[in-house]
Amino acid sequence: MFLLLSILCSTVIFIIFKCFDKYNVNTLQAIVVNYFTASVFGYLNYDSPVSFSEITQSNWFLGAIGLGVLFITIFNVMALTAQKNGLSVASVASKMSVVIPVIFGLYMYNETLNFQKGLGIILALVAVYLASVKAKSEEKINIKSFYLPVILFLGSGIIDTSIKYIETKLLSDNGIPLFSASIFSIAGLIGIGLITFKSYKSAFSINFKAILGGAILGIVNYYSIYTILKALNMENFESSTIFTVNNVAIVTLSTLIGLLFFKEKLILKNWIGIGVAIISIVLVTFA
After folding, report:
1. Residue 187 to residues 46, 130, 180: CA-CA distances in angstroms?
2. Is the separation of the CB atoms in 93 and 81 below 8 Å?
3. Is residue 89 within 8 Å of 17, Cβ to Cβ?
4. Nearest 10 degrees: Cα torsion 157, 159, 162, 167
5. Which residues of 185-217 are buried (b: 16+ CB within 10 A; e: fewer)?
6. What distance in Å separates the CA atoms of residue 52 and residue 191, rounded to the nearest whole number?
7. What is the reported pTM?
8. Of 36, 43, 115, 278, which is most buried by a Cβ count within 10 Å?
9. pLDDT tens digits for 30-53?
């Protein structure tokens, strides 16, 4: 259930970013509002009084700072990639990064890798590519924005790997809401700094669409992190299984939503990719 909710929330994040572009929402302002909204939800879900000293003295605090920096950086990159290169390109760039935490899990935690699971992981990568590739008329990549998917790929992989490491080594089960809230608070404070810096260079005005959009995004974003942490905390599944199923399912669902709601055209390769994705999920889940 936690894995299914994580897939749903992460897919909705891509949809929200697409809507930001459609309705001229100030992305940076919305991202900052999103992080403060998400942090509030984290603090409200923590079952003990919140203490600043407790947070700063926690053994995961430095990791939360690093993730906070990565979160706001990669979120901005994700939004720019979706807007400049399309929803599918943003999806494939972030979800192909599954190879990074999977390899880390196999090496660091001695997770199993039999033929069925290995085949499933390879098919998952094939599925991600096929489900996201565009028709020839739409395949031209602007060199100026080519760096965005690359940064998104590396950053997403590092985030997933770091989350798993902290969840395994440093985090207790009841500390998930506080840990998540701390990440979002740090990311939000960095965002305030970015907005302040930009206001010196150009006139600043509050985008009220960004407040509403950011609040909605923040709720979804909090639960996307909370549910993936809860899924990783389950003893019956290895992280390589969780990340593979999570990422390939998000790409498949994002592709179908792009078809249904954003009139993105699917070619034969996309449909093949969706079929391969289903096969890979079955193989990895039951390996």
Report:
1. 19, 33, 11
2. yes
3. no
4. -120
5. bbbbebbeebbeeeeeeeeeeebebbbebbbbb
6. 20
7. 0.80
8. 36
9. 988 999 999 998 888 888 788 888
